[in-house]
Amino acid sequence: MPGLADSNGVSFESCRHRGRFLRHRDFKLYCEPNKGGPFHEDATFYVNSCGPGLTFQSQNFREHRLRHCNFRLLLEKQQQKKGLFGKTKNNGPEDDFNFRAEMC
After folding, report:
1. What is the pLDDT of residue 104?
2. Is the pTM above the cut of 0.70?
3. Pick the CATH number of 20-97 from 2.60.120.260, 2.80.10.50, 3.40.50.300, 3.90.1170.20
4. How would you write the chain as a 3-class SS string?
5. pLDDT tens digits for 8-42?
């Protein structure tokens, strides 16, 4: 659905619990009822294509993307680090930031 804070973005409403949206709080994602105010910015993401998947950039933390890690959805910076032999690597497997979207 169009983003709650910006129609150029997207927001994720629960199929099972209408009126509840994925939003970030303390850099973790929760499915919570829409209470307005900063909730709208916390629940809006911009979609970027990245290889075979999509990344979701936070509306109010532009350098942060959705990431899954240890069975949680998080909001993290996708940082570049120098690895072995000077090669650039991310702070986690690249797939941790890429998602496939399906409609329910």
Report:
1. 45
2. yes
3. 2.80.10.50
4. CECCCCCCCECCECCCCCCEEEEEECCEEEEEECCCCHHHHHCCEEEEEECCEEEEEECCCCCEEEEEECCEEEEEECCEEECHHHCEEECCCHHHHCECCCCC
5. 999 999 989 999 999 999 999 999 999 887 999 99
